[in-house]
């Protein structure tokens, strides 16, 4: 099958994300890339665990003084829901329902923006409580781990938005279907990383 | 479009190479850039040996010596050995599996430019206030206190170059998994392809820890973070772990492809199937796996405790088993073969005892208790030069002679090749053998001078004389290259006459689409099988048809240029330069903007039509 072909609902393949050789390569390459990203975040998690609550003096806040469940729980729910909506988007992509796919991608982006807003609010709050990037090793490790994730969310949002704008007028074909698919894979990965951050940083942080 | 080379102006050739996405041209770029960095690292080595030739020498200052040893190690590992291996991987691996290109030609070009600009950035440190001086391992306790921007050049330069290596690794993995010709099963892949595969998988999992380590170091030095600052709650050991979690696998990332090169050479010039092919594959995978669980053997004296030391010591020694399997398989490949002593075979033959010596001292330094004595002495310097030079560099020189005709269509002179070999081989053992004893006699690593009358004078002088021999060998190789290219005598498909794998089934250098028809692979040593049945070439697996090709692109260069500019911004931001942050933002904007252009502009590539392919053939015959 050719990437440029104009397709209809009837001729649209069952797995459009792997229908051409280019798409197959992209699909596999991206999974491998996520493997590398997993190691990247593992290293950051290990660093965080080694430096958790390591502060120069007692005036600095520790994890148990900082984190609050309601705020992070809302953020977690937003991001988890956005993963679900991106699944809906891919479901419609496989059914050649371009408009519906765009709609659900739009919802995904909005939820992601909500998450990002909460994160900015949260970071701002911590800084006012004296927990800064430069104030302690704990601060450096916390903002690096959570901030790296935040940067991934930002990049993911930019990516999905760029795909939506670029393909707004032309609909689905086998050239852009793998692109949408891979972007949604990325979004799921970010979500999985957040589940670990929520557990390791926030839940384990609150129990001390 | 014709495959017959047309005379082009310098500008056109330059533009061609700046925008190319062809794996064969990218291989040329890797070979040239890696070769230049190899010469720079070699000059640094010579400076080290001049300084240490006699006691109390003041050829260079102590500070300059630290910069030179740091740049020698960093350059040789990251900017010479890796890219030179990548040159062969790019030139040969796609041909060996019968592919028309790699899976991601665009990413392939991007990987090269990232490596090149990273290396350029690192080396600009010489002109911009001084090179890094905390050793190639750049331990945080040293590097945080290093004045000037040397360490920042190291951190940012390696970050950029490392990204290139990472995406290169992913590209090779996907290529090998998805792009093999019909009939090329995994267990029919040549050993060089197998080792490329395993080394690429190791790159994928070993480089991210380095990325993180370098990022943390950058945050500490340039953005006020405290990861390694003990007074702020930090921990300097974290750097050591992150560095060696990368650093040890890196050693195998280098040596496995070297094993692959030698496996091809042994089998070709013994004119015999590689002995124990499946056990070779098994040993390669096992080494790749074990390579990830031994990193702390570099940290025996850090104080991780006897239990950790014991576990890492045993794991390290276990690697000796698959490596031993390989050594015996190479010996048995030659056994009963009809061995032809060409230049590549000289290197392969010399590699076995040289590398085994490095392996033996490897088991010695892996013994944790004894390592307290060897640690940070010249014994360790001797050990790792025996594995890296005796293994990797010999393989690179062998590979250069072996695949030169395939990459450039000309044959290097065999006599000059053998002279290079003898000079280099003698020089290598002269330089490093005595260093084992210098270490045992108490000479510490990384000292810029030593006192007379301590029993170290003669040993150091011998070592320095050896360095002169190695330099002479490399110079002869350069002369050989120039002479060969000036004479420009073209060779055929299989210039050694004994080629076994698919790269020898097509023209030297291959046409830009590699295979007019994808070959049908009927077993291991696919081309040899066909030759033994009296056929001239491979049986095609498809009729002649249109070939899909990727378009050239300048975007990889631009993406990298942006990062290169951004790195300067990040670095000078600590000096409170008002233009630093804007420069950083501008650089990142160039990078992300270029990525956006790539995303927005459809690139479907183009097709070579079947009529052109058949015309080419007529043209070549006429
Ligand atoms: Cu090691």
UniProtKB/TrEMBL annotation, chain A:
Domain Heme-copper oxidase subunit III family profile residue range list: 1-206
Keywords: Cell membrane, Membrane, Transmembrane, Transmembrane helix
Keyword Transmembrane: yes
Keyword Electron transport listed: no
Lineage: superkingdom: Bacteria
Membrane protein topology class: Multi-pass membrane protein
Pfam families per record: COX3 (PF00510)
Main location: membrane
Localisation: Cell membrane
Gene3D superfamilies xrefs: Cytochrome c oxidase, subunit III, four-helix bundle (1.20.120.80)
TM annotation in the entry: 28-51, 71-91, 103-121, 141-165, 185-205
UniProt xrefs under InterPro entries: Cyt_c/ubiquinol_Oxase_su3 (IPR024791), Cyt_c_oxidase-like_su3 (IPR000298), Cyt_c_oxidase_su3-like_sf (IPR035973), Cyt_c_oxidase_su3_a-hlx (IPR013833), Ubiquinol_oxase_su3_dom (IPR033946)
Family membership: Belongs to the cytochrome c oxidase subunit 3 family.
Name recorded for this polypeptide: Cytochrome (Ubi)quinol oxidase subunit III
Organism name: Neobacillus paridis
TrEMBL record, chain B:
Catalysed reactions, as listed in the record: 4 Fe(II)-[cytochrome c] + O2 + 8 H(+)(in) = 4 Fe(III)-[cytochrome c] + 2 H2O + 4 H(+)(out)
Membrane-topology descriptor: Multi-pass membrane protein
E.C. number: 7.1.1.9
Pathway, per record: Energy metabolism; oxidative phosphorylation
InterPro entries: Cyt_c_oxase-like_su1_dom, Cyt_c_oxase-like_su1_sf, Cyt_C_Oxase_1, Cyt_c_Oxase_su1_BS, Cyt_c_oxidase_su1_bac
Keywords, sorted A to Z: Cell membrane, Copper, Electron transport, Heme, Iron, Membrane, Metal-binding, Respiratory chain, Translocase, Transmembrane, Transmembrane helix, Transport
Predominant localisation class: membrane
PANTHER family: CYTOCHROME C OXIDASE SUBUNIT 1
Name the record gives this protein: Cytochrome c oxidase subunit 1
Organism: Neobacillus paridis
Lineage: Bacteria, Bacillati, Bacillota, Bacilli, Bacillales
